[in-house]
Every structure is written in C-alpha cells, then in structure tokens.
Known about the structure:
By secondary structure, this protein is an alpha+beta fold. The protein has helices at 2-16, 69-76, 109-115, 124-132, and strands at residues 30-33, 52-58, 64-66, 81-86, 92-96, 105-107. It contains four helices and six strands, in the order αβββαβββαα. A hairpin with a 5-residue loop joins strand 4 and strand 5. The protein is globular and about 35 Å long.
Amino acid sequence: GSLDDANWLLSSSSVMEEFVTIENAYIGAKVLRSSQWREQDGDDDGGAGNAGVITGITHRDGRVVGEDANRICDEQDWRECCVVKWERTGRIDGYPIGDHGEYVLRFDEAARRADKGEQRPVEAEDDEENAKS
Length: 133
C-alpha cells in the first residue's frame, strides 16, 4: 500500500543521511557535514565530503564525554553538542546535534560499512588516506 511506500522512502533516505544525535553519537565516530550544515560553519571540514572524528560530546543533563567538549560547547551555549576534529583541516570545533532542532552532522556511512568489513568502490579520496597510514 501507499503507507508501505512512504515507510520505504523514509528508511531509504535515512540510509543516505543518518544525522548524528545525542542518542547515537559516540567518541571516535566518523562524521560528515549534513544537509543542515550552516553558513557559519563554513569550510571547517575542508569542504563537503571530508570526514571528521567526534572527540567530545555534551549532554543536556550536563554530562560531558571526551575532550574539550565543555569549553567549546559552553561557548555556544549548546547542551546537545559534539566536538569534531576534521581530518583535512585539523580544525576542532563544536556542532549542534539536536540543539534548537539543528543536526549539522551525519554519520560517514562508507566508513561504517568499511568497519563492518563490507567492500565498496574505492574513491580517490580514500587513496590519500591510505597513503598516509
């Protein structure tokens, strides 16, 4: 029925872009800018498609995980916030993951699949990373 189609559409689009939220964020997660990336975030990441790693998370109840999250997120007065270190630029900054309904990060699905050992086509960007490691 049409409801099934709608559900299928929802699930297929969430595979494309799974927002980082306070519920699913974890230290060490590889993330990319999401479709909600804001103008003021600029090219912190070195441009769309460049990955970063979550290094800190602050929760609404004041719990803090990881490094620097307190300082960086407090400056913005965000309660649901994570700190990302971007691989290409080396920049470390805080981003809302649900604060004010803003989700500016998404999981790097390719990296997640690679973690699980599933093969995927190799893109040019990956070659650079392999050369470094």
